[in-house]
Amino acid sequence: MFHTMKNLDTAFRQVRMFCLVFLSLCFLMTCYAIYKSYDAVKTANSSVYVIANGQVIRAKNSEREENLEVEIRDHVETFHHLFFTLDPDEKVIKQHILQALYLTDGSAKQLYDDLQEKGFYTNIISGNISQRINIDSVVVNSKIPPYSFRCYATEDVIRSTNNIKRALVTSGTIREVSRSDNNPHGFLIENWKILFNQDIKPLNIQP
């Protein structure tokens, strides 16, 4: 009888050990499944889909800090292209300036008002003048906000008789704001000013 009780006790211990091992494995498998599910959701959320030319393209989303300087440079370049690209068409000028002003504070609006008061845009239209800007470089200090920048560019002033090339240097600071359709990068240029803007190379056009 004692031998039978000893066998039952040993069997009970074995069954209990088996159950504990089985439950431990189930717990570990459950934790692994939850981890993989969370990882899959995180991966899916980090992917964005862009429609280009009728095709859906998968792109990888990244943290803003990883591309901060790139986004700031593109924001600064976009603003300068909109503000300084001019054609002898009042509607086009106003459209470009309006888009540019969404990217900056009142410092650019003040310069626009001053130029408009001096008849700069009227002369562009009456003289059939076009202006194009080429960005050479944008130097950004992204260590401490507000981030400072300096933009180096050249302008081509195109007339029917001659072209004039100008050197342009501007500076300002960058503040982060909410992203929107009018401001996709979510930056605002502040304290923007023109440091240098002078003719460097006139080019005569032969008829």
In terms of per-residue confidence, which ranges show pLDDT below 50 for 5 or more consecutive residues? Answer: none
| CATH class category name of the largest domain | Alpha Beta
Question: Using only CA atoms, what is the Rg?
Answer: 32 Å
Roughly how much helix do the residues carry, as a percent range? Answer: 40-55%
E-strand count: 6
Count of folded domains: 2
Percent range for β-strand residues: 25-35%
Which structural class should the secondary elements be placed in?
alpha+beta
Q: Could you give the order of strands across the largest sheet?
A: 3-4-5-6
Architecture (CATH level 2) name of the largest domain: Roll
For the terminal residues, how far apart are their CA atoms? Answer: 123 Å
**CATH fold category name of the largest domain:** Nuclear Transport Factor 2, Chain: A
Shape: rod-shaped
Topology as a string of helices (H) and strands (E): HEEHHHHEEEE
The major beta sheet can be summarized as: 4 strands, antiparallel
User: Number of helix segments?
Assistant: 5
Query: What's the CATH superfamily of the largest domain, by name?
Result: VirB8 protein
Could you tell me the mean pLDDT?
82
InterPro entries: Conjug_transposon_TraK
Protein name: Conjugative transposon protein TraK
